[in-house]
Specification:
The protein is of the alpha+beta class and 76 residues long. It has helices at residues 2-7, 17-33, and strands spanning 38-44, 52-58, 61-67, 73-74.
């Protein structure tokens, strides 16, 4: 994994409790709201610290949603 990270210039950062809780809440929201969705990624929103963006596919469409630090969806 370390060799892959160096080759692709990826920084590995340790998870912290607030982040893992927010990401778990985001995953739960997607799972409940879009049960057939395929989650592609969850990452911190560069435009607003402490917020998250998720990208997922549902029914052949790709979606991007934003969430606050507690994992609640927010308007763009």
């Amino acid at each position: 994994m370390l060799a892959f990270s160096k080759k692709h210039n990826i920084a590995l950062i340790p998870a912290w409790p607030a982040r893992t809780a927010a990401e778990a809440a985001v995953r739960d929201y997607i799972k409940q709201t879009y049960p057939t969705a395929k989650l592609h990624s969850i990452y911190e929103d560069k435009k607003q610290a402490g917020h998250y963006v998720t990208e997922f596919e549902n029914g052949g469409q790709t979606y991007k949603l934003r969430f606050d630090g507690q994992g609640h969806p927010v308007a763009e």
